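Chain A, query sequence.
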Amino acid sequence: MVKKKKSSQFLRSCIFDALMILLQEKRYEEITVSEITSKAGVSRMTYYRTYSSKEDIVIQYFKEKIADLYEKDPQFGKRSTEIWYETLLNFVYSQQDLMTKIQRTPELSKACQTYFVDLLQYLFRKYRDLDIDDPNILYEIIYKAGAIYFLVTKWIGDGFRETPQVLLEWIKQYELGSSIERPQ
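Chain A, predicted structure.
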């Protein structure tokens, strides 16, 4: 079973790498599944057994990174939200080329935004025991997820000028209350 898992991981890695190489050569919407599979050295059957779309290649990559995180730290979900944000910011910073490609590709950016909001909902439901069926809680989670997502998007677009630690400090400040709308 371990051999099959490693083989599947290798194939997913080849497909992901092929997509990244092709993104350097042409626009995302011009890339075909045939080009991806040819560059990866896998069959179309292998591709379709693993992925439902080109966007799914990147989403599965992120899911594997999350699984790796839990494998290294099984208690990660129970850690503070600040640790979640710090881990996210450090990951994004370590993957600058990938994040820039995602941001420049509307289809990938939209898929990643949806994945990120879904991931935060899952984490809050599972590890904070929050009832996200309550609209107030659900909208607060979506609000926070959107704020973090767009803050990170701006950071990527600005070329990662600040360090992850600076962004984390800003996020902590924002979570305590905005300085923009305080009555005088």
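The chain has nine helices and no strands. The CA atoms of residues 124 and 130 lie 6 Å apart.
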